[in-house]
Amino acid sequence: MKFNTFVQPMLLSEQSSPFDDDDYIFEFKFDGIRATLHASPKVVHVFTRRGNEITHIFPELQEIANIVDDKVIFDGEIVSFEHGMPSFSKLQKRNLLKDKSKIESMCREEPVAFVAFDCLYDKKDLRKLPLLDRKKMLSKYPDTETFVKTKYVAGKGKDLFQQVVKMGLEGIVAKKKASIYETGIRTKDWIKIKNFKKEIFIVGGFVENAHKASLLLGEYRGKRFHFVGKVSVMRDSPLYKKLKRCKTRKKSPFIDYDEEKAFYIDRKYSCEVVFIERTPNGHLRQPVFQKEIERNEK
Q1: Residue from 68, 231, 227 nearest 147 by CA
Q2: Average pLDDT over every residue of 262-291
Q3: Nearest to residue 273, comparing CAs of 235, 229, 227?
Q4: What pLDDT is stored for residue 296 in this prediction?
């Protein structure tokens, strides 16, 4: 492992239901940008999970250099908070900035925090150590305005998940206490369990792709039909086959969405979709198709 050179992060598997297990610890899943942060007393470098360096976008994270006395590599999330809660939409706006003066202005007005959940290097490579030993190394670094360590509970994933549901957070992560850090590997030793929302939406049309189709979803707000996003289905799915038999038109039924390659249909089909959250304009984040909802189904 070379300091200041991209290290592929350990990846998570996923399941739908929380669980209890004394071999695991459980942490909040923060809705941010996964990143590895290389800190020395002189400088900080930040890399995304795909290896892009984003140090220049978040200059406030340079303050983390003040809490280390040697070379350290942390794994965690860059998070933007709003009213004490993670806000991915706010973070996304910040992440898209390119103008240096705007970045510096946002750095002062709405600073982000690095939420650390692992320590990969501290004067030496720690990846072969068990997770709880790495957590112990992480614990010696103090929380600041820009550096926050995750807290965890042992064994009780179901209780923590209930807290997440009440608070409206993204989910939890289960990690085996004895897990080593497997660089670039998706492993069942780390499992994310997301707090998906579930709603029923009207299908206003579809777009055809090579192997899948994208359903165009909408909802009524008053008497107006608004676009909320796209969700993928396989082209051999029963609902898509029904849509293909429908009479299509080129005029969009949505008041706020129109796409030239889309096929629009009568609004007589609905489907259930799970998603993480809505953006400020009401669009769905990470929508996943669940099932068609028959007209007589409540």
Answers
A1: 68
A2: 94
A3: 229
A4: 47
> By residue range, what is the domain housing residue 204?
197-293
Please state the rounded mean pLDDT for residues 216-231.
97
How much is the mean pLDDT over the chain?
94
* Terminal-residue alpha carbon distance, the chain: 55
Cα distances (angstroms) measured from residue 89 to each of 56, 147, 228, 261, 277: 20, 21, 15, 28, 10
What's the alpha-carbon Rg for the chain, to the nearest Å? 22
Residue 101: φ, ψ to 5°: -65, -35
Distance CA 125, CA 133 (A): 12
Q: Is 119 helix (H, G, I), strand (E, B) or coil?
A: strand
Query: Do 32 and 84 fall into the same domain?
Result: yes
pLDDT digits 0-9 by tens, 50-97: 999 999 999 999 999 999 999 999 999 999 998 888 988 889 888 888
- Residue 295 is predicted with a pLDDT of 58
Whether residue 1 is predicted with pLDDT greater than 80 in this model: the reply is no
pLDDT for 283 equals 95
What are the φ/ψ torsions at residue 264 (nearest 5 degrees)?
A: -100, 145
Bridge partners, 249 (sequence order): 264
Say whether both 289 and 169 belong to one domain.
no
- The candidate with the shortest Cα–Cα distance to 219, out of 290, 278, 288, is 278
Rounded (10°) CA dihedral 51, 56, 61, 67: 80
- Contact between 96 and 106 under an 8 Å Cβ cutoff? The reply is no
Q: Which of 162, 178, 194 corresponds to the end of one domain? A: 194
Angle at 217 between CA 214 and CA 222, to 5 degrees: 165
Does residue 119 contact residue 70 with C-beta atoms inside 8 Å? Answer: no
End position of a domain, from candidates 178, 194, 210: 194
- Number of independent structural domains in the chain: 2
Q: Which helix (H) or strand (E) holds 240?
A: helix 238-245
User: What is the C-alpha separation between 39 and 62, in angstroms, rounded?
Assistant: 8
pLDDT at 288 over 90: yes
